[in-house]
Amino acid sequence: MSSKKTFKIKQKLAKKMKQNRPIPQWIRMRTGNTIRYNAKRRHWRRTKLKLFGMVINKSKLQLQTRLVDKLYSTATS
Predict the structure, then answer these.
(1) What are the domain boundaries of the chain?
(2) CB–CB of 54/1 below 8 Å?
(3) Is Transcription among this UniProt entry's keywords (predicted)?
(4) Which end of the chain is more exposed for a tag (fewer CB within 10 A), N or C?
C-alpha cells in the first residue's frame, strides 16, 4: 500500500479496521449462544480488500500502453 492515500481510501480502511473485530460477549448471552463468532472477520494476509484505484496490474498497464502506441502509430502514418 502506498504511503500517500486519498482521504476517501483512508476512510474506507478505517471503517474496515473497525468492523474487523470479534462480537461482544453480551451479544452471545443475548442470543443464547446462537451467534458465536463474527462470520465477516477478515485476515490481513488471506483476504484482501477490494479498494479500486489502489493496485495497478502491470500486465494490464502494459497492454493498454501497447494499444495506445499502436493507435498512435496508425494515426500518424
Answers:
(1) 7-74
(2) yes
(3) no
(4) C
Q: The C-alpha cell of 25 is what?
A: 460477549
Residue range 48-67, pLDDT digits in tens:
999 876 555 556 666 667 77
Residue 9 · residue 54 · CB < 8 Å:
yes
C-alpha angle 32/23/31, rounded to 5°? Answer: 15
In residues, how long is the chain? 77
CATH class in words for 7-74: mainly alpha
The model's pLDDT over 20-50, given as tens digits with 9 standing for 90+, comes to 999 999 999 999 999 999 999 999 999 999 9
CA dist., res. 37 & res. 32, Å (int): 13
Q: Is the pTM here over 0.90, yes or no?
A: no
* 8 Å CB contact between 38 and 18: no
Cα separation of the two ends of the chain:
41
